[in-house]
């Protein structure tokens, strides 16, 4: 059996409580309190309270004390209060409305009016609560849909970017590591270089976009991409075009993409081989002309290349790879990003060592 909704009547005059009780007892469970302190106890105990009829002038604790209690416990938005006040109490109405009470009625009151207003207010607040609950459900549904979309996008991005790695006989873990390293560097950038204005949302988008940094290698001939040795100068010039090929691929799939994610994909794809001193490619950008997203991925990409096996080189130890980057042996990088790399040194080492514990080739 469904429990009746509750109405709390707070008044130090028993005759008033009796009259108000009689107005609602057929449809509601009535709870009574003779002063404000008793009222706060009843409010705390009740779980199905839909209305409070509250007197102002009472012993022990007055009506405004009850309103203070309700405000402190964030109850006034959920439980409506009709204040029943004597005409002799000065400014009580303005003070009551400042608390956010649903209505103010004056003694002596007309019972049928109190009943009608009370029922209307209960219906209004319950409709409002139902709407809030429904909006909350819709927000949760939207968040769940967004989560599924993100996961699907993540899957498609990883699948597309892994095509290059499988084609070049790598294990496919390069993409995952680049995303880890990028995320770590961005966290340090957020903490120690707030002037870049990187938000948690941007951190996620840049980390996801990093997976597409080498997508342009799809367009590089096998003879060059799979060559088991160092490239000739002519072959290296062709290899360098993977940056612009990747951007061409992104443009074909762009459609109406105008958001930050596409921008990060494009920046990282085109500029992750640019260097701080202008000696990178394809556009020979200098310093801050290079987007910070590309700066970050550039360091992550070089470090992973150094500590991972390649057909043209052996694996460098973590500390050797770190020193090579910091000493400029792999080109000049942003001083700010190098500072983040220095701070993240142990994090990078730990990731590499953990990955070595697993065999991703099977």
Tell me what the structure shows.
By secondary structure, the chain is of the alpha/beta class. Helices cover 57% and strands 8% of the residues. It contains 15 helices and 5 strands. It is elongated and about 100 Å long. The model has no long low-confidence stretch (mean pLDDT 87).
Question: Main attributes?
Answer:
362 residues; alpha/beta; 15 helices; 57% helix; elongated
| Largest sheet strand order | 2-1-3-4-5
Total count of strands: 5
Distance between the termini: 60 Å
Percent range of helical residues: 55-70%
Radius of gyration: 34 Å
Low-confidence stretches: none
Shape call: elongated
Mean pLDDT: 87
The succession of helices and strands, N to C, reads EHEHEHEHEHHHHHHHHHHH
The helix count comes to 15
- Class of secondary structure makeup: alpha/beta
How much strand?
5-15%
Q: Please give the largest β-sheet.
A: 5 strands, parallel
Please specify the SSE layout and strand pairing.
Blueprint: E1 6-10, H1 14-24, E2 29-33, H2 36-45, E3 49-55, H3 63-72, E4 81-86, H4 92-99, E5 103-107, H5 111-167, H6 173-192, H7 200-209, H8 222-225, H9 233-240, H10 242-252, H11 260-271, H12 292-307, H13 318-326, H14 335-343, H15 345-356
Parallel strand pairs: 1-2, 1-3, 3-4, 4-5
Helix pairs in contact: 1-5, 2-3, 5-6, 6-7, 6-12, 6-14, 6-15, 7-11, 10-11, 11-12, 12-13
């Amino acid at each position: 059996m469904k429990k009746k909704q509750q109405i709390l009547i707070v008044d130090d005059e028993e005759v008033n409580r009796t009259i108000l009780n009689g107005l609602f007892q057929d449809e509601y469970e009535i709870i009574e309190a003779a002063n404000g302190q008793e009222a706060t106890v009843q409010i705390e105990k009740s779980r199905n309270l839909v209305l409070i009829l509250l007197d102002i002038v009472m012993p022990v604790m007055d009506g405004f004390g009850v309103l203070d209690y309700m405000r402190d416990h964030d109850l006034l938005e959920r439980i409506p209060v009709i204040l029943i006040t004597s005409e002799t109490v000065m400014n009580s109405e303005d003070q009551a409305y400042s608390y956010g009470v649903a209505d103010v009625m004056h003694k002596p009151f007309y019972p049928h009016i109190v009943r009608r207003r009370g029922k209307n207010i209960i219906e209004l607040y319950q409709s409002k609560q139902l709407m809030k609950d429904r909006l909350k459900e819709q927000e949760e549904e939207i968040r769940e849909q967004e989560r599924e979309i993100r996961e699907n996008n993540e899957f498609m991005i990883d699948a597309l970017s892994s095509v290059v790695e499988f084609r070049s006989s790598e294990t496919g873990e390069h993409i995952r590591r680049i995303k880890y390293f990028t995320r770590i560097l961005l966290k340090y950038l957020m903490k120690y270089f707030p002037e870049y204005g990187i938000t948690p949302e941007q951190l996620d988008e840049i980390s996801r976009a990093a997976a597409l940094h080498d997508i342009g290698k799809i367009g590089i001939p096998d003879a060059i991409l799979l060559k088991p040795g160092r490239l000739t100068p002519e072959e290296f010039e062709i290899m360098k075009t993977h940056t612009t090929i990747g951007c061409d691929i992104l443009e074909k799939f762009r459609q109406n993409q105008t958001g930050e994610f596409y921008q990060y994909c494009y920046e990282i794809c085109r500029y992750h081989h640019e260097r701080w001193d202008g000696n990178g490619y394809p556009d020979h950008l200098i310093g801050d002309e290079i987007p910070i997203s590309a700066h970050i991925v550039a360091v992550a990409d070089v470090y992973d290349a150094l500590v991972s096996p390649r057909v043209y080189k052996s694996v460098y130890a973590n500390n050797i790879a770190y020193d090579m980057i910091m000493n400029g042996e792999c080109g000049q990088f942003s001083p700010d990003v190098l500072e983040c790399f220095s701070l993240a040194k142990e994090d990078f080492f730990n990731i590499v060592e953990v990955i070595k514990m697993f065999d991703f080739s099977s």
